[in-house]
Write the structure tokens for this entry.
Amino acid sequence: MTPQEITTWMHHLCTLAERETLPRFRTKTQIDNKLDQGFDPVTEADKAAETVIRNAIMQQFPDHGILGEEHGTHNENAEYCWIIDPIDGTKAFISGLPVWGTLIGLYKDGTPLAGIMHQPFTEERYFCDGTASYLKHAGGEKKLATSGENTVSQAILMSTFPYFEDKVQARFDALRNACKLTRYGTDCYAYCMLASGSIDLVAEYGLATYDIAALIPIIEKAGGIITNWEGGSAAQGGSVLACANKELHIAALEKLNA
Amino acid sequence: MTPQEITTWMHHLCTLAERETLPRFRTKTQIDNKLDQGFDPVTEADKAAETVIRNAIMQQFPDHGILGEEHGTHNENAEYCWIIDPIDGTKAFISGLPVWGTLIGLYKDGTPLAGIMHQPFTEERYFCDGTASYLKHAGGEKKLATSGENTVSQAILMSTFPYFEDKVQARFDALRNACKLTRYGTDCYAYCMLASGSIDLVAEYGLATYDIAALIPIIEKAGGIITNWEGGSAAQGGSVLACANKELHIAALEKLNA
């Protein structure tokens, strides 16, 4: 697939998803709980958006694979595999906050190639076509670039949750306490703030593949580094550390593994 | 002042402020730190926005008082006093997140009468004209009403920070652990999500008058209850507990004071 073809299709799929998500945002849409213990919500909007994305991919690219949060895997060993989180940040979605997004990633032979984060309420699309990363919004389109901040003590950190299991908490707190500022509750939006240079670090734990797949190329092609907390690949989720640049990545890994 | 006059002026003042805040959002605007220990940022945008709001009030209403976060008090014992936080959520602002807002409240004889929260990036204006509360945005205008949720275990809670001093932490955690879901990093946006029925509770500690003044009438005229953690007035800041309705307020106060 060419960068042009990828871009056209990512935007088209997001537009289809928007018709299912945005009309249900801030309404009394049906919310189900995926967990017996705890609260992991899924809404009609999540399910319907993933369905329209999958149907469009299967019709246009019958040989491609699909991995989606709500409706599982299909032909996942194909050369091209689409990885879908129809609403990343469902907790933000049901709370009325405009920091959720539709994530669509494209892996080629298991490696992240391209991806998009679409926030339809703010009309922002952060995406990578495989060669460079862009923000398209009501004001136009611009190329994304991460910040030059290379000192942890001057860095702004984001994480969706402040609380982790004990061993993880100590590692996260070592990084958090070294940073200038930490913000929570940010989901996919955090990685887009990193790619656009507004913040410098994102650290999260226990992510699924579909939480991070679309965001990896956006960050890498904006100049950032994204790995797990040991410095290995983040392409299958797990722990994730995203940094504005190489120097900051080395320094942040040291804090997490002191 | 009539509700019509109040509404016209609140919107006008927000439009003046927007010209100072929005062009500096997600740019490399000057950031200063107000603290010797810790990080409490103030930007050019905060200072410039408060200046234009103050100048407009002083010219139109020379007898009125003003209390502002950045530029202090003026004639504060007047019958009408305007209370200004030019950017509530400066940490969100410098992190690129669209959950900050310009807060302008109007007290009459020391009592909250009217207020507005304006988020110029999302083009949302949550406001109370002294009689009812509204959301005005790109899609039109609607009357605000809080949720009917009256059980803490089913409630969604918001708070800007997850961490407090020890004694306060135990009280906050007792409430948080009883709720269905807690979201952080929300500043003034949390109170607007409460007024519009998306969430059910907000609990914060250590607020200043200008952090809460504009939001009190918005919540009260949307059907909510807002007090401090002892059930007294929140009009001077301090601890703040905002609830969707009376029943939930009684139940939440019990958790905070168990």
User: Anything to note?
Assistant: Helices of chain B lie at 3-21, 44-60, 90-94, 166-178, 187-195, 209-212, 215-220, 246-256. Chain B touches chain A at residues 26, 39, 41, 91-92, 94-99, 121-122, 156, 158, 162-163, 180-181, 183-186, 189, 193, 196, 198-199 (CB under 8 Å).
